[in-house]
Amino acid sequence: MRRDERLAGILEKLSAHGSIAVNDIAETFDVSIATARRDLDVLAERRLVSRTHGGASALSVDFELPARYRRDAMAVQKGRIAAVVAERLVQPGQSVGLSGGSTATAVAVELGRRESFVERGLTLVTNAINIAQDLVIRPHIRVVVTGGALHRGSYEASGPFSDLILERVTLDVALIGVNGFDLAAGPTVTDEREARVNAHMATRATRAWIVADSSKIGVRSFATVGSPRIFHGIVTDEGVTAEQVDAIRELGYEVVIA
User: Fold this and answer.
1) What residues make up the domain containing 186?
2) Structure confidence by residue, pLDDT tens digits, 51-75
3) What is the pTM assigned to this prediction?
4) Helices 75-84 + 102-113 axis angle, to 10
5) Beta-bridge partner residues of 224
6) pLDDT digits over 197-213, tens only?
7) Distance CA 203, CA 212 (A)
8) Domain with 218 in it: what CATH number?
């Protein structure tokens, strides 16, 4: 097991139980006591845990753990969605709007490493600072951040400053991640401020797509993301059922299955 995987496992146990002992780490992950101590030291240096005598306790924090420490059961599906988006929905030289979220982050990674975009480049507009940070090192991608007030849980910005920037740009395509896609309410997210920014970004695009793995289909979160009319379609994975596909198409969406 790689260290990052082990660190993720330790953090998951801390999240569930509040504290963990060095001996428990050694036994659970089949490592030496010395390795277990070093793992806790690494996490403490990154301010993700508080070291205690013989172990560590979880910190009281108001943010989600960094993505590299979170295990995502749908990571493979999100990677497939990202590959389809980069291959079929985005063309070199285009301006692309990208919201926050784990699926959108997978799309950002795929756009950043695709050689087909190197010659003509891309302009990427995002309200997610983690996506901006990941892509700003790519010389062929011009990154525009909307600005606004940051949300600790999602690393997304929203508010009047975001609106000002979005009102002054035009996009070829917008790719919007969601927390749920309800067959009655449509695309939804947990935060009404992010819903507003996502909807605004979608309206600035010639064509807007929802990017969501199949576990989000049939799920309803708190805030709706605009009206269904602002989205051309949804990109999801093969876990979606035939009945769900038919119902989504009846709502007027094109469905692309990765």
Assistant:
1) 75-257
2) 999 999 987 554 455 554 455 668 8
3) 0.78
4) 50
5) 188
6) 999 999 999 999 999 99
7) 19
8) 3.40.50.1360
